């Protein structure tokens, strides 16, 4: 199965992976979640504790991933960064889903001018680079994690709206929807109680793939300094702070959080595709 | 005699604009249906029979004409829960596609209970009613816990019939209900519907392309061609002495004893001439 996410972010096309790849990815995702939940117990050091006697250390037994420009332990920072990074992506997706599913369902249900209006609005949003849109939102409101999440969520919503609309239209053409109508089910109940629950399996698989995109977009935003602020160890921010060392040939502080982002994004894509296949209930 | 259904001058055109009349799906169609009677609406694809079925149940709004159930004219402007539930009791429909006409998420029991709850059957009475419905469509009660994908086509169609009957409608529209089923299951479903009609007094409207199938279970037949009723009368008369060349053509299109393909072509040509005149 192929899922393509056209939108403010890159196109993600994923093939079905071999079982062991799926379990490896599931394990890596699990690891990220465990890190986010148990950061205080897992991290060997305080993520903000500076040590000016140990700047830019190479990986060693004391510091597995080395230290950054302030002598902070990179492993501890990566572990502590899991929480803001993952929570940010979850919040972003939750917000975008609430807005997108609402718009998509209403468009599919009402058709006519409502559908056309919503299609044009989402088209305009599509034409606008997502990142630029978020920067605008941040320019108007305050910079910070919440603004970044809401701005990015608004940029993601049209993608989800389009997707929801197309699967909702297909679903509403099925005879069981007519059968519900004939039983006397009203339009709102029909959408909310009868059609939407049947969309969830398809939608959830798609959202898991979008989660990777969301994580990456949010990291990019944080890298640009529009979201999380120091001393947070959000992964995108860590890449940005580690940038200075790259010029001096010290790539670790920027590369390691970057790799972590890449691994989590790839893992969610693999898991998401498998999940959407599994959830697609036989009709 | 008191008619349960009276249809007068029904008309529906699709994609009509100011400049073009559009595609006329149903034109000036009228018929009557008495209590516990069964009528067959027969025609080839595109004859307008499915549009007629959808108009009867209220899924498609006619451009002109009236539909009466038990002397009450259907009002299209009427909205709200009370009107919806009353309409549901007037007429129900079973669809052609047994794979798509059930909500794949719900077990048979949940689906039936949902219908009963909507029509204010309290939960203690619902158990008995569900058992009764399952029995009347010939399904074992162990299938109550099954979801649609665990059932065969025939079983699903029985569930769809049970769901329609749960509302206790006066009229049941059956849109090609047996087309997707194999022949032995077809016969079972037809026998079941005849039995249900005898027991409950529900009036049946069989919409089908298959004159042979409809002929077995109806009292009267309405033959549709290009949106119009070209022949209408008691089933035995229509089958034995078809008045319209199109009906004759439908009759001889069905492969049976003495069937010859060239005869169909002959009739088709003869019919085309008759129709153009």
UniProtKB/TrEMBL annotation, chain B:
Domain ABC transporter: 5-251
GO aspect biological process, one term: peptide transport
UniProt-recorded Gene Ontology molecular function terms: ATP binding; ATP hydrolysis activity
Keywords attached to this entry: ATP-binding, Nucleotide-binding, Transport
Transmembrane segments: none
Gene3D superfamilies per record: P-loop containing nucleotide triphosphate hydrolases
Pfam families xrefs: ABC_tran, oligo_HPY
InterPro entries: AAA+_ATPase (IPR003593), ABC_transp_ATP-bind (IPR050319), ABC_transporter-like_ATP-bd (IPR003439), ABC_transporter-like_CS (IPR017871), Oligopep_ABC_C (IPR013563), P-loop_NTPase (IPR027417)
UniProt similarity note: Belongs to the ABC transporter superfamily.
Annotated PANTHER family: D,D-DIPEPTIDE TRANSPORT ATP-BINDING PROTEIN DDPF-RELATED, TRANSPORT ATP-BINDING PROTEIN
Name of the protein this chain belongs to: ABC transporter ATP-binding protein
């Amino acid at each position: 199965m192929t899922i393509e996410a056209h939108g403010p972010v890159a196109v993600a096309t994923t093939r079905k992976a071999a079982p062991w790849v799926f379990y490896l990815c599931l394990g890596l995702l699990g690891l990220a979640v465990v890190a986010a939940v148990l950061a205080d117990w897992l991290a060997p050091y305080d993520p903000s504790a500076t040590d000016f006697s140990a700047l830019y250390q190479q990986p060693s037994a004391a510091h597995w991933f080395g230290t950054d420009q302030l002598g902070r332990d990179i492993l501890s920072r990566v572990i502590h960064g899991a929480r803001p990074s993952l929570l940010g992506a979850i919040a972003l997706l939750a917000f975008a889903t609430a807005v997108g599913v609402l718009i998509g369902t209403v468009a599919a249900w009402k058709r006519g001018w409502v559908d056309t209006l919503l299609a044009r609005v989402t088209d305009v949003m599509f034409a606008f680079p997502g990142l630029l849109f978020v920067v605008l939102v941040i320019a108007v409101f305050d910079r910070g994690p919440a603004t970044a999440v809401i701005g990015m969520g608004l940029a993601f919503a049209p993608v989800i709206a389009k997707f929801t609309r197309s699967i909702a239209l297909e679903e509403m053409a099925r005879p069981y929807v007519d059968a519900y109508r004939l039983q006397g089910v009203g339009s709102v109940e029909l959408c909310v109680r009868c059609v939407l629950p049947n969309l969830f399996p398809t939608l959830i698989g798609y959202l898991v793939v979008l989660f990777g995109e969301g994580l990456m977009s949010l990291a990019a935003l944080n890298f640009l300094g529009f979201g999380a602020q120091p001393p947070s160890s959000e992964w995108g921010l860590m890449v940005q702070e580690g940038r200075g060392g790259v010029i001096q040939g010290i790539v670790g502080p920027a590369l390691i959080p970057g790799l972590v982002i890449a691994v989590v994004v790839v893992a969610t894509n693999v898991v998401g595709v498998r999940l959407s296949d599994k959830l697609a209930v036989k009709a | 005699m008191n008619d349960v259904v009276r249809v007068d001058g029904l008309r529906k055109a699709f994609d009509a604009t100011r400049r073009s009349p559009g595609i006329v799906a149903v034109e000036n169609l009228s018929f009557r249906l008495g209590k516990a009677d069964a009528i067959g609406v027969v025609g080839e694809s595109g004859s307008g029979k499915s549009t007629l079925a959808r108009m009867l149940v209220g899924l498609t709004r006619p451009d002109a004409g009236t539909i009466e159930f038990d002397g009450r004219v259907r009002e299209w402007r009427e909205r709200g829960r009370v009107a919806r539930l009353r309409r549901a009791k007037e007429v129900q429909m079973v669809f052609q596609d047994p794979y798509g006409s059930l909500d794949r998420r719900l077990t048979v029991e949940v689906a039936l209970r949902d219908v009963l709850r909507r029509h204010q059957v309290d939960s203690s009475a619902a158990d008995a009613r569900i058992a009764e419905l399952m029995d009347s469509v010939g399904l074992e009660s162990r299938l109550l816990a099954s979801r649609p994908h665990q059932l065969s086509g025939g079983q699903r169609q029985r569930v769809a019939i049970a769901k329609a009957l749960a509302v206790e409608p006066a009229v049941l529209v059956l849109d090609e209900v047996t087309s997707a089923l194999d022949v032995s299951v077809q016969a079972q479903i037809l026998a079941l519907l005849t039995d249900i009609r005898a027991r409950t007094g529900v009036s049946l409207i069989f919409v089908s392309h298959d004159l042979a199938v409809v002929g077995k279970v109806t009292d009267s037949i309405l033959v549709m061609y290009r949106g119009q009723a070209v022949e209408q009368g008691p089933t035995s008369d229509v089958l034995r002495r078809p008045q319209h060349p199109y009906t004759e053509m439908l009759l001889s299109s069905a492969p049976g004893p003495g069937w010859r393909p060239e005869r169909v072509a002959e009739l088709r040509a003869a019919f085309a001439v008759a129709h153009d005149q």
